[in-house]
Amino acid sequence: MVMWVFGYGSLIWKAGFNYDERLVGFIKGYRRVFYQGSTDHRGTPEYPGRTVTLEPAEGEVCCGVAYRISNKEDQEVALTYLEVREKQYDKKAYLDFFTEPNATTPAVSDVMVYIASPDKKHNVNYLGPASIEEIAKQIIQAEGPSGPNRDYLFQLEEALLQFGCKDAHVMDLASEVRRILSERELTST
């Protein structure tokens, strides 16, 4: 049995497990949003960072990468690793993954994806929607064991642009973070 994992956040640039193949593509019916709180990687319980999760959105697509893992031992190691890394994501879904914009048949079916649901009973770290400015300010303030939250945002923006994906939410947020940071720099000099 081959296992496929879809990455739409930091998994794009940092898998952290062995894989046989990496495909660039997208899933349908979801959009990437910075609504998940991170108290273990990009923030702390006192100052949670914000990381991406998926939100159902009819007609939308979310680009990312799919990793194929065929070796049984590599699959077990990857699953164990992902269960720790993605522990604040309370839901797993198995979705169709596409590599061609006009394709009606998926390149791969049943790609596993971790989702942080808005269900506060099962996902205590869900932060939910906020204005771009509020999210940007929270990202600027947050830092955790994996580094500053803004690095996560900028690395995601760069990784997406490298394969031609212009995600408006990510790009608007990155622009707002840069604007606030440059304003602060100007007022401090």
Automatic annotation (TrEMBL):
Its main location: cytoplasm. Its EC number is 4.3.2.7. The keyword tRNA processing does not apply. One of its GO terms (cellular component) is cytoplasm. Keywords: Cytoplasm, Lyase, Transferase. One of its GO terms (biological process) is glutathione catabolic process. It is found in: Cytoplasm. Its cofactor is Mn(2+). It comes from the Eukaryota. Belongs to the gamma-glutamylcyclotransferase family. This is glutathione-specific gamma-glutamylcyclotransferase. It comes from Prunus yedoensis var. nudiflora. The lineage of its organism: Eukaryota, Viridiplantae, Streptophyta, Embryophyta, Tracheophyta.
